[in-house]
Amino acid sequence: MIRKIARLLKIKEMREQDALRLVQLKRRALTEAEAERDEAVRIRDESERTYPEREQAVYDTVMGRVVAQDAVEDMKAALVRLAESRQELEDEVTRMNHVVERFRRELQEARALHAAAVRAKEKYVFLHGHVRDLMLAETEAREEGEVEELFAKPMRKPDGTAAHGA
Q: Are 40 and 93 in contact (CB under 8 A)?
């Protein structure tokens, strides 16, 4: 029976290690996602800081001079591209925020699984120790009984007479 419990304990230990590796994996994924999000925020903020100058540069291509209608249309298209670029950067930050939150939830779930695996392993550690102690106590009691039985009987000499004068 102790071997079966020891085998089950080994399985519980392996499951705990697997759960711990999953926690570490999710923690690394979260750290990487946070770094990517921080980089996306930095790029967006830098773009926002320079947006007025870039927008003004597009207007400056037609302001104060006589231009063909095509130049005005090109200016409008450039402004649309600039606004789309701005929105793409904002969308990337929003997407990365969602990714970070998803990894946070996954890390939380992995931690809960690890905690459950630790509790399950601890039960088997206790059970294994308890059964081992019971088996040791039973073995000791059996050995004591054998010793008492051995000394409780009068010993006989090979010729059949009692050894203690009995």
A: yes
Architecture of domain 2-152: Orthogonal Bundle (1.10)
C-beta neighbour count of 151 within 10 angstroms: 9
Residue count of the chain, please give it: 166
Output the six-digit token pair for 141: 């009691």
Taking each helix axis as running N to C, give the angle between helix 69-152 and helix 2-60, from 0 to 180 degrees, rounded to the nearest 10. Answer: 170
Query: Angle at the Cα of 55 (from 51 to 60), degrees rounded to 5?
Result: 145
Q: Are the CB atoms for 128 and 2 separated by under 8 Å?
A: yes
Q: Does an H or E element contain 42, and which?
A: helix 2-60
Q: Residue 95 in contact with residue 1, Cβ under 8 Å?
A: no
Of 56, 154, 47, give the one whose Cα is nearest residue 162.
Answer: 154
pLDDT digits (tens, 9 = 90+) for 38-84: 999 999 999 999 999 999 998 888 888 888 888 889 999 999 999 99
Predicted TM-score of the model (pTM): 0.69
99-127: pLDDT as tens digits: 999 999 999 999 999 999 999 999 988 88
